[in-house]
Write a structure and sequence with these properties.
Largest sheet: 4 strands, mixed
Distance between the termini: 66 Å
Shape: elongated
Radius of gyration: 23 Å
Helix content: 25-40%
């Protein structure tokens, strides 16, 4: 603490805190000795008294509540909205022959087993692509600290309704409440695609996290194993065209889709949102959008913000109409 001064370098605004606040640094913490010297109490003592800093401002629970949405355990759930065939997928996919999925038959097996029909490539690939964002966010976990809110403000039903449109915007607050991001190189973006949509023979280890509990991924692996190597590459080329139109994607690693580490190699390159926090899921910003600066929320009152509010109002009205019709 040179000159007995502490430099507060980051500025955080609501709704990410209860009031405008200066913070010490995004990636550094005061030593216990410095903290006690500045505030006259240990950090745990201040948290216990629900005070914030030396001013002792009480934290209003109604403004900044602890919100934790449990991540889905086991296999992800199919999107509750039926996927629409993507017009960009070429009709050439319809000519790719696929080996039929082997299905068990017997008196103790239901007549209509819960097996997706992947025998039609032109129909199945759009379904897998439509499931992509929903599966990813369904597997987005929570901080280990039970006193911290979820990394996403979306509950399970909302995660199951997600479309890939949320991955085509720089407004990351559509999904995240806390996130780490970096502008990806061409190689990093390509690696993310290779891990999330692997070619034949490059599937993740059975011991890895997330991958085999995502429905789109297991169906993709099955599809890749039931077509020829040439046709598999053709299918991947079509999906990669769609993937390259996304604004962001998880910074996936070999053993998990979501990486939260802050101390591993290269972590310092990741910027944090909101400013001043430490940790969060890591994502890549598409190198094709190098001029894109991601933010959590649009500027209040902007055209984008009004559009978001309008979409929310229309969605609420539709839900009310559905409820009234059901009643």
């Amino acid at each position: 603490m040179p000159g007995q001064a502490v430099f507060l370098r980051a500025f955080v605004l609501p709704p990410w805190c209860d009031a405008p606040r200066l913070v010490y640094a995004a990636d550094r913490k005061m030593s216990d000795r410095t903290f006690y010297s500045v505030f006259g109490a240990t950090h745990s003592d201040l948290k216990r008294t629900r005070g914030i800093g030396a001013a002792g401002i009480p934290r209003p629970a109604s403004r900044n509540p602890l919100i934790r949405h449990p991540a889905r355990k086991g296999v992800t759930k199919s999107r509750v909205v039926a996927p629409v065939a993507d017009e960009q997928l070429t009709l050439a996919l319809s000519r790719i022959p696929v080996q039929a999925v082997a299905q068990l038959r017997g008196f103790d097996i239901p007549e209509e087993p819960d097996v997706e029909d992947d025998n039609d490539v032109l129909a199945s690939v759009p379904q897998l692509w439509a499931q992509f964002a929903s599966d990813l966010v369904q597997k987005l976990g929570n901080p280990r600290d039970a006193c911290s809110s979820s990394y996403s403000h979306l509950d399970r039903p909302k995660r199951e309704r997600l479309t890939n449109e949320v991955m085509k915007t720089r407004y990351l607050g559509e999904v995240f409440s806390q996130v780490q991001w970096v502008l990806a190189t061409k190689e990093q973006w390509g690696k993310s695609f290779r891990l999330l949509w692997p070619p034949v023979g490059c599937k993740a280890s059975p011991l890895s996290a997330h991958y085999y509990s995502m429905k789109y991924y297991t169906r993709w692996i099955s599809l890749m194993e039931r077509v020829s190597a040439t046709d598999a590459q053709l299918i991947r080329n079509e999906v990669q065209i769609l993937f390259n139109e996304l604004t962001w994607a998880p910074a996936a690693i070999c053993d998990r889709v979501w990486d939260f580490k802050t101390k591993n190699r290269g972590s310092d390159a990741f910027a944090k949102l909101p400013i001043g926090v430490v940790g969060g899921p890591k994502i890549y910003i598409n190198h094709r959008y190098r001029d894109t600066i991601p933010v959590l929320l649009p500027i209040p009152g902007s055209a984008i913000d009004r559009a978001r509010v309008g979409r929310g109002t229309q969605h609420a009205q539709r839900e009310e109409e559905e409820e009234s019709s059901d009643g």
